[in-house]
Amino acid sequence: MERRTAIRAFIILLALLLVGVTLVPVMSASDEKGESSITIGIDVPEPEPTVVPSDETLQSLREKDDGVIIDDTITYLTYWNERMKWDLSEEEIKRCSQNLEENILVRYYDADHDSYHINDLDAFGEALGPALGLNNEQTVAFVQTHREQLVIDHQNYHLPPRW
User: Fold this and answer.
1) For residues 117 and 108, is the Cβ–Cβ distance under 8 A?
2) CB-based contacts of 43: which residues, under 8 Å, 6+ apart?
3) d(CA 124, CA 122)
4) What φ, ψ does residue 116 adopt, rounded to 5°?
5) What integer is the mean pLDDT of 119-139?
6) Phi and psi for 8 in degrees, rounded to 5?
7) pLDDT for 100-126, tens place per residue?
8) Helix axes of 90-99 and 121-132: crossing angle, nearest 10 degrees
9) Are 146 and 140 in contact (CB under 8 A)?
């Protein structure tokens, strides 16, 4: 009988030990953060929802940089004349350059850097086309080619120059 009592006492002590082992972490976890914590014995914060912007917001967040900086209008027009095969003579380029500076590029002038900073190629192309005597197709082709060149320039920005 004493042996039976000893086994029952051992089982009761073992049960109390198991209850104590499971209750202590649960009680200590619930005291630390209150209702927002998960009771595993480790303090884990409740996840916060991630706000995903709508399509309209994504359009406004996109970096819009089709900006062009023109230091010398004659060099700029000469480059694009050769690239787009407009067949303008040097005299026409000089005349158009002066016309551009006086009439179109005035609103783009940056006095701090003594250059012209064009942010909107579409508006610039619409103004440049008639000033150079280009038709609508040539103007659209110029703007598209200019955008493609900007992508190439951005991709090759950090590359060392090829001599």
Assistant:
1) yes
2) 29, 32, 33, 37
3) 5
4) -110, 125
5) 89
6) -65, -40
7) 888 888 888 888 888 888 888 888 888
8) 130
9) no
Tokens standing for residue 29: 């976890």
Domain that holds residue 12: 2-46
Domain membership of residue 52 (yes or no) is: no
Same domain, 72 and 38: no
pLDDT tens track for 10-57: 899 889 888 887 777 666 655 555 555 555 566 777 888 887 766 665
Is 80 a member of any domain? Answer: yes
| Matching residue, tokens 């995903």 | 52
Is 160 among the domain residues?
no
Within a domain: 54: no
Q: How many whole angstroms separate alpha carbon 104 and alpha carbon 129?
A: 11
Per-residue confidence band for 59, with pLDDT thresholds at 50, 70 and 90: low
Q: Are residues 37 and 115 in the same domain?
A: no
- 8 A C-beta contact, residue 112 and residue 120: no
Are 10 and 72 in a shared domain?
no
Q: Give the pLDDT score at 52.
A: 74
Here the tokens at position 48 are 């916060």
| Amino acid identity at 1 | M
